[in-house]
Amino acid sequence: MIPTLSASRAALAVLSCLVMAACSPSAKRPEPAPLAAVSPLMGVKLAWKGNVGASGSSVAPTVEHGLLLVAGADDALLALDSGSGKSMWRVDLGAPASSPAGYDGRTAAIITAENDLVVVEEGKEAWRKRLPARSFTRPVVAGGRVFVHQADRSVAAFDAGNGARLWALSRPGEPLVLQQPGVMLAVGNTLVVGLSGYLAGIDPDAGRIRWTATVANPRGTNEVERLVDLVAPYARLGESVCVRSFSSRVGCVDAVAGRTIWSNADQGAAGVSGDAEMVIGSDADGVVRAWNRATGAELWSNARLKYRQLTAPRLLGQSVAIGDADGWVHLVSRKDGSELNRLSTDGSPVVGSPVLAGDVLVVQTQKGGLFAWRPE
Questions:
Q1: Domain presence at residue 96
Q2: 149: β partners
Q3: Residues 337-354: pLDDT tens digits?
């Protein structure tokens, strides 16, 4: 049975809270692994830093077309030049952001905690639309349309010019949802969306599913254990899209043929990064693992950062950047996971995954700190 819009809204308001409580064990967390002294083997220089203020929501920054899009204090969406940190424009949202921002070089889109889809044209609000359910996933802006993936696992398309809804795709309701970004991206003329534990290829013109490829199947005896939604960030290279299924598996899918290439068991809540050779993720205990992108064979693992509540990693050249709950950014070798350097911020948790803008690595913290480094 597909819930009505009012039923979906009520269910999400209650069940989103339930799943977050259920996924946060009351037992005391293990002590984070102590940090050993590190001799920097990779030179890094602070390019710029700033502060946009604590936003009241932990929304990851995004980099699109040279702009760094961040949710700042006073319920604002800010666009900064990613190379220098210079402010380009600022738009008041009227509520905290609940999703990262999407941007196609002209049009930006973001979703607020009030369920408003806010669309910005050249630094000014163009229109906003109230959605029937909450959303935590970055909107995709492409082909004159704005695509939205809502927390009830429905997908909708809107005309980027006037906000008219073009189509909506709903799934049978499920009892619990995750309050974290899911997976949605454009691959050629296909909108690829994570729906529960599988990727679906959707016709962006008509809203019809073209194919599905399973990464994880629901398992367990209760609704929390059966949550297998795909979570951001993802690692896309051409037609290959690699993703993590919440607390279940990591796998890669051919997004043109619509088939699963491989899928490995690995418990974790943060997404993955990757390039042509490997996929890298951090699991629930803070163990960082690398897999061969083509086969899924494990290449190496690093347990020296256990229980440090790691972000998703970010591959950059010969190193991998990972943030933690104490505001450290760890740079480890892509070859074997050994530590190359350790960068400090303001001591508050790193939000989302580090992002790469050209040759600049940028992180945002819960206190609103922005830190950008450039390899020497």
A1: yes
A2: 155
A3: 999 999 999 999 999 999
